[in-house]
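Researcher: Please translate sequence to structure tokens.
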Amino acid sequence: MAYISNYQYYTNGGVTPTDENWGEYQYVSLHDIVNDFMLMNVGPDKLVDNVKRYEVLYYAKDAVKELNFDAMRNIKVIEINVGDNLKMILPPDYVDYIRISLNVDGQLYPLTENSRVLSASAYLQDNNNEVLFDLNGEVLTGTSVLDIKRLEQHTYWGPGIYNGCQGWCWGDNWYFSYRIGSRYGMDPSEANINPKFRVNRSAGVIDFSSMRANSLIVIEYVSDGMENGDDDMIQINKFAERFVKAHIKYMLMTNKASVNEYIVRRTQTERKAELRNARIRMSNIHPSRLLMTLRGQGKWIK
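Model: Translation complete:
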């Protein structure tokens, strides 16, 4: 980000949105990093010679992805309403989820992932159970019985709420009295009364096992930082700027012919060191914060 006046920073010069520049000084744009690398590291008398800008840009994006997955943990949070079909479409920049919660009156209740299959694709068949195909030779599909039962809340196994009462579902039957042993033999990993979910990666949705209609779901997920392909929107924390440049240099040396092995090892060592430094700097560990966390060990448990 270029240096701007305080008036420009706080009010964006009076132009809407006024919060456009808030917090931007923490970051440097991908465009600036690539330009700086081309200026300081590419040339006849430099380590990197005769390289195209698009190559530098490609490896810079590769470094940004690794940072988001490993060091920065660029976590995004989205709140979305789930309808009657009990499906939630994955965000366009979704890579993996951190936590999925149910929002009830401002309180977040974490959900657990169900290892059982919650949905399936049903092949259409004729009266002789032969699979049906369309004109292009593709299999015709429809709504599966598993999907129908899931929407009717018949495939849910575990503790939950049914008709406003807390109970345990087993074999399509609900049990509500603890005296008949409804909790006996319960799997502790599924001891959660909240709805369960399963990420259907191939379909690009999250299937939920049971849920009230129009429930709010909050998903915290990891993005790759590519901002849906808009290079001008990609920002890198200044703590990780040196790692991005070291990664570019290492990848260029690795994929270039007739480069001495000791140069490759040197750039590899530099890359590892910069990645370690970036992790430490962005870990946000300070003595005062660590002290407050350690104070929790002094709490008596009755």
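Researcher: Any highlights?
Model: The mean pLDDT is 81.
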